[in-house]
Each structure stands twice: as C-alpha cells, then as structure tokens.
Amino acid sequence: MAPKPKIRELLDESACTHNKTKKAACNAPTPGATTGGCAFEGAQISLFPYADAAHLVHGPITCLGASWETRATRTSYPGRDLTQMGFTTGISTNDVVFGGEQKLLDSIAYIVEHYAPEAVFVYATCVTALIGDDLDAVCKAAKQKYGIPVVPVHAPGFVGSKNLGSRLGGEAALAHLVGTKEPEVSTPFDINLIGEYNVTGDMWQYTPLLEELGIRVLSTLSGDGRVASIRTAHRARLNVIVCAKSLISLTRKMEEKYGIPSISLSFYGKRDTSNGLRAIAEALGDADLVARTNALIEREEARLEEKLRPYRELFKGKKAVLNTGGNKTWSIASALQDLGIEVVATAVKKATESDREKAREYLGENGVLMMDPGSEQAKIIDATGAHLLLAGGRSLYTAIKKRISFIDVNQEKKKSYGGYDGLLNLAEDLKNALENPVFKTVAKRAPWEK
Amino acid sequence: MGEVIRKPIKPLQVNPIKLSQPMGATLAFLGIDKCMPLMHGGQGCASFTKVFMTRHFSEPIAIQTTAVTDVTAILDGGDYSIVEAIKNITKKASPSLIGLHTTGLPETKGDDIRGVAAKIDFPLVHVNTPDYEGGLESGWALAVKAIIEQLVEASEELDGNKLVLLPHVSLQPIEVEKLKEFIAGFGFEVLALPDLSTSLDGYLGEKQGSLSGGGISVEQIRALADAGLVLSVGDSMLGAAKALLEKNPAMRHHHFAHLSGLEATDALVERLLAETGFQKPPASVIRWRKRLQDAMLDSHFSLGQTRFAVAAEPDQLAGVCASLREAGGRVRLAIATVDSPQLVKIPAEKVLVGDLEDAENLQDDYDLIVGNFHAEALAHRFHKGLVVRGFPNWEQIGNQLKNDVLYEGGAYFLFEAANVAEAMRAATHHGRD
C-alpha cells in the first residue's frame, strides 16, 4: 500500500516558478474572507471524469449532495457514465461515534455488485478524516476481495484549497494506478493529457487534430479518461499539462520515476492552440512531425480565419474588461485578442503568480491587472469606453449601469470555447452579446422615476 | 395512505436527493435583510453551498466560512476561527446580523459555539446544524427556531392585525410572496420569517454588496412576539412555532402541513374567515378558487391515467402529492429526503426515505416523476415525464417564480403536470410508430 501523500511536501512544490519568493504554504484560508472550494472539490475535479470508475465519497451529505452532476465533463465511454452519478456513504451520528469503516466496506461491495466499475475511488472528507476511519486499510481489503483498483483519495476539505486537492487527486492516481498495467501497443508519439477534464467537450476540439498528426493520446487525467489507460500512463513519451498548474507535482514525479518529460500549455484561442500543437510536436522531437504539424496549423488557421471573417468587422475597435480567476485571466484574454478585441483590463485577484505574469505578457504594458476588480472595473469601463464586460454574475449590475454588454464567464458553460472551433463558439456568443439590446432596454428608467 | 418505509435498506446513498442541514440554515439566514450567513466548517462546505444556491436562484449569494483547516480542527475550539471570521467580515461589510451555523466538522470535534457566541459583541444567531443529522428542511427549521429564541423579545402585548408566517424551506420566493399577499387580503399585516420573497425573488438590484438584500429586518424579528396570529406551514416548522409562542403564550397559532391544492387552501381560508369574522374572502380569492376547480376538471382526465413518482423534502412532498391526488393523479411512489412526521399523511401507495437509485429501481411503477433536476437523467433514460421541483434546479431558469401554492399556484401546477404527461404520452406514441 502506497503511503499517504505528504501534504507539506505538496505545498512546497519545487517546480513552481514562484516558489523562491514564497515561504508560506500556498493559499492558507482566512476565516471570514475566503472564497473558493476545498481540497475535496479539487480532488473531485481531477478524478471524477473517469466515467468507468465509481466515485464514492465517504462523508456527510454536504460533500456530495451539493456537488454531484455539477460539471459537464463529457465522455465517450459507452457504458453508464458514472461521473454523473452520486455515491456517498452519507454518514450519520452513529458512524461519527462508532466509526464508518464497516459502512464504507459495505458501500464498496454494493457498488461493485450493482455497477461493476473498472475501479472505485474512495474520497476522504473532513469528518471521516477527523474520526480516523482507516481508508487505506478498507481500500486494500476491498481491492483484494474484488480484484479491481480501489483507490483511497486523501483530500479532505480542510487540508487546503481546490488546487491542493487536485494535486492530491493526482497523487492518488500516481500511487495506485499509473504503472500498474502495460499498454498493448506503444508508439513513438504517445502522450498523456494531464489536467484536461474535457469540460463541455473542450478536449475533443483538438484531439482529432492530434490524431491526424499521428499523435496518440495514451491516457488522460482525466478528461474522457479510462482507468485502464491511466494505468499505462508510464509508457508515454510526453506529459502535456493543459491549463493546470495544480498537477505539476504529478508530472515532475513522473519525470523522476519514469523519465517522461512534460510541457505545459493551453488550448484557448488561435495562438495558444497553434503554439500548443507545435510545442507537442517539437517536444516529441521528430522533424517530420514538426513539419506536418506546421502544415496542419497553417491549414487550420486559414480555415478559421475564413470563418471568422464575418465577425472581424463587428469586433473591430471593441474593448473588453475581463473579471475572472485562475488561468482564465489570461487564456480568455488571449482568445479575445485572437478575435481582434482589445482586452483593456483583466482581474488577477484570484490568480497565481505565474498567471499574473502571463496576463501581463498578453495584455502588454497598458493593460490593467485588477487586484480589486469589484471596485476597479466600473472606473476602467468609464476610462476606456469598454464595450464588453466578461465576468461572474455578481458584476451584471455594473454592466447594466454602464449600459454595456455582459457575458457571464463563470457560469457553468454548456458550449466549448477550446481549440480552433471553440473560438468560433466564443465569437458567436460575443456577437450575440454585442447585438443584444437587452442591456440598454433593461437599463431604462421606470416611468415613475422620470 | 400506503406503505411507509423509513429505514434505508442499503449502506450508502446513490444519486442522493438529500441535502444538508447547514445548507438549509444558510438559506434561512438569506431571508433576513443584510445578514451574513457564516458557516462554521471547512471552506468547501460554504463554497459548495454558494455555488449551489447561485445556480438555483441565478442570484449572487452571500455566505462566509470560518475556513477550519486541519490544524485549526485540532488546535482550535472554534474561538479562533469564529472570532477571526467575524473580525474579517465586519472589516469589509456592516451586516445587521451574523448567522453562525455549524457543519459536521466542528460538531465532530465538539466546538462550543454557544460559549464562543457569548463572547462576541456583535448581533449574532448561532445554531448547531451538523450535516450528519437531518437534512435541508431540518437545517432551515433549526435556524428559524434559533433566530426566534435568540432574537425575538418576549412580549405580553397583542396586535390583532399582525400575523407571523413561518414557511418551510421548499417554498420558493414567489410562493412566500403569494402566501403573504393572500393573507394580507384578509386585512393582516404579514411578516414572514424567513422571507425569501423579498431577498431571493430575482429582482434586479445593486447586488454588488456581499450581504443578503431584502428579507425581514432584524428589528422586525425582534418585535415579532406581539403578533396576534402565527401561521406555520410544513411540519418541520412546528418547533419554530412553539419557540415563538413561548415568547408570548397569548399568541394564537394555526398549523398547516402544506398549502397546496383545493382542500388545504380551503382550510386556510376557513381559519382566516373565522379569525377575522369576514363573511367572504376577497373577490380575487373567490375567482381563483373557481379557476382551480376548473383546472382540476380540465386536468383530471390526463392526471387520472398518469402514475406519479414524487421525490422531495418531506413538507414539499406532502403538498405535491396532495395536490396531484385530489385531481386524480395516482401517486405510486413518494421518496422523501429524510424521515418526518409528514410521511404517514402522504397520499401515496408507497412512501420511502431514499434516493434516486430507489426511484430508478422502481421505475416500472410510474410514468412521470416530480423531482429536482437530478431526476432528469433518470427521466431521460426511462422515458418518463419530468416536472422539475425542489432544490436544486440548475437546468431551468425562473425557479424563484415557480408557484404551486394556494388556489392560484395549484391551478398552474396541475396544468403543468397534465401537459407534461400528455407530451410524454405523445412522444411515446410517436416512438412506437
């Protein structure tokens, strides 16, 4: 049985470029001034997309009851999509007092009998971690009994942020799955996609292009993923981290253990998609592949430009303010710029050091990096004459007051903005927002206010 | 009344409809003006709740967390994290009240929140709502009871015109508003506790602020004990009503298990007529009763040939089942999130405390399911009709304006259910062609 991951070690990730400057743990939450999810949610995000595995949450009802069926991570798995099912031990007072191990074991048995999953992931939560249920022992016993991987995931919410939880999820996969099976065939162009969760089918915007180039996605963590594939991930030639700094520990360890190099990239917008494809080809180190990739990029960019032409005129001279968090602070900015929209400001309050660096890179010297977007964005809209506000729902009123168009970027999307074709979806949504009279109509004064 | 199964037969929940006590408590505090719900637990509990409610109501949701970590979980008895949280909240905003409610984590380690609260010099209501007990409905009810116990000032006065309405958690904002207006039609000044009808009803306001907006004010809550009448809706609210009566035993109290459908609304009108001495209700009430009668007849043919499954919080379950049944709907299966005294009164062939896997296993028994949006996958898989009700509904917008109560809402609800049943039958027919 693999040892539990050491949380201090994960918080002190040497591969983080900002680590030199930071001595304290990443993201220690402040009581009364904290937003954002917990470690459990992070683990859920990183592992739930395995649709052929059951995800059993060992804890009281809040953890799963409030969170199942929240993320539109699409899968091509032909069996029942277990990602969109909720399994929880839903522990009660009795379990808190007497321990929940037996209930957990019975629950795993029930799941194996009724749903025959390829694996069971068992998630610790605050309460079950606190009462000291021995997840490792239960999982080990169940694994022996049922002959499938039963993976303990030690990411109870109170150990830290979503980001840390994603790392812990990655650690669980590394400790219990990666390297436990050999692939049937290997190719020189086998890659793993790490941190791509295929939300709204983002991944499928570019995987056909990889396929066309002869690059094989050996496994993913975990978009459209399969348990059997992640078990063979140690045989890949390259790890590709997609927009997810949280899993950098995983790829570093895979490099140390299996000698797999890694690159980090984004597939949002034209430039990033092209750069990403090129980076993969170059990292795989095959001159012919690089040449073919460049040809494909040329073809795809030309095709995209053709389709974007009708939008170009409409977007000309348009300015946008972006108020979001994480990698979206720069990845959406980049996509907007690809559409010919000037991004005058982006919020970096909820972004890491390296996200901030990237945002600065994309926005240039004159772009504003907002540290306090709530109070800054209205002033910036006035000062720059911005036409568009892309933000979370709370900012809607700012847009109404300023009579400019609004796009909710934080709402769970149903449409993909990834890859080349995703940019077309974004363009269409922006066009609809800019042409929608609602922001001006709604802002009209009531008859009795005149 | 049919068979009632209270004890789950399996070790786990699969596709749960149950939600947690702290989430119910949060919602209750959101029905108070300028309140900051403060959830005592790991940061994820509050984060999940915020996202959950934001998506259901399409509104910004005020909530903060004490952000208990693995270290504070061991070293802190709540003193540090709660005091620190309040300090940080009040640095940025001026809430009229802080609604401190617990989760499983601090309850497991045994934080004495009453003791901590006693040391805090800020308007605060505290309530124990561990998420390994009860559910959404009881969390809401416990919070309302705590609000009454800790805020309402005892009184010996009585204002015959003043009426306190205690709604259960599943009543959507518009339903609370309709209840208030309906009762106000009999000449009462109605105060709802909590009052989501003015806070989460989806109105456009300057919602940049981090506090709840609208809802009953703390001053109004303090002065509730001189109301001549207390009306509680939903059996979960009996404890809160009892707590209020203790503040002034002279208050008169009427309880309604639910206010859905003709018979339940008739019972309310009868009470209100008796209390006021009116001969007749307002003209619009009379008109709506006739519309509901007509709606029942218009829909009975469709409903009478439809077998229903309903999955909901117990108080809502009681209302939905009664409303369907009195128009002829055959409620084969009623699934409750948790146990409740309501269950024995529900007019269904089988009532059980369970989840959507149970609904799936019994899918041969019904044609149409009424439940939260999680029932969508099931309805789709087995070609069942679906009427989305309850928390959460992330697939549809306008939840805050869905009205199923009284004569008026009852009519809308029956039409919707019958139309869904017909559309379902039409689709099935086409499927067979």
TrEMBL record, chain A:
Domain Nitrogenase/oxidoreductase component: 38-434
Keyword Membrane (UniProt): no
One Pfam match: Oxidored_nitro
PROSITE patterns: NITROGENASE_1_2 (PS00090)
Xref: InterPro entries: Nase/OxRdtase_comp1, Nase_comp1_CS, NifE, NifE-like
Keywords, alphabetical: Nitrogen fixation
Pathway: Cofactor biosynthesis; Fe-Mo cofactor biosynthesis
Protein family: Belongs to the NifD/NifK/NifE/NifN family.
Function: This protein may play a role in the biosynthesis of the prosthetic group of nitrogenase (FeMo cofactor).
NCBIfam families noted in UniProt: nifE
Protein name listed in UniProt: Nitrogenase iron-molybdenum cofactor biosynthesis protein NifE
Gene source species: Desulfuromonas versatilis
TrEMBL record, chain B:
Keyword Transport: no
Matches recorded under Gene3D superfamilies: 6.10.250.1090, Nitrogenase molybdenum iron protein domain
Similarity remark: Belongs to the NifD/NifK/NifE/NifN family.
Protein name: Nitrogenase iron-molybdenum cofactor biosynthesis protein NifN
Positions of the Nitrogenase/oxidoreductase component domain: 20-420
Coiled coil: none
Keywords, comma-separated and alphabetical: Nitrogen fixation
Pathways involved: Cofactor biosynthesis; Fe-Mo cofactor biosynthesis
Organism of provenance: Desulfuromonas versatilis
NCBIfam families named in the record: nifN (TIGR01285)
Protein role: This protein may play a role in the biosynthesis of the prosthetic group of nitrogenase (FeMo cofactor).
